[in-house]
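Fig. S4 source data, part A: sequence.
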Amino acid sequence: MMELLRNQMGFTYNMLEPPDLKYGSINEHGEGNGMVGQLMDCQADLAAAAFAITLTRSRYIHFTKPYIDVPKSLLGYKGEAAATSLWAFLNPFDFTTKLVIAASFFVVSFVFAMLGRLSPYRQSDELESTDGRQRSAVV
């Protein structure tokens, strides 16, 4: 990205790492270390990293608006992967609850089918009324 900007805008730059290899923090005396310290001491003009924007840091250095918020940590199981199935979402439920869910699926399907059959607005091949005008059908 920097090379692209350099070619278009015609400037030079040097990439450097902080001596202590830290993002940086600010102590109670207002002195910083890491990249934050380099910015505060004008040893660097720009730092590109996943900085956390804190109140203390924002008093000493300027931040751009973040364009993405990435969580700092993830938790994961370090063992063998468990076998997954299509019906894994039902695992927390007992047998009675699973039976009620299955029964409600069939009951709701039946009720919707009956409402569709009994509705005066159901879709049919006969979309013209007796006076020759087009009727609208709600699907």
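Fig. S4 source data, part B ends here. The two ends are 52 Å apart (CA to CA).
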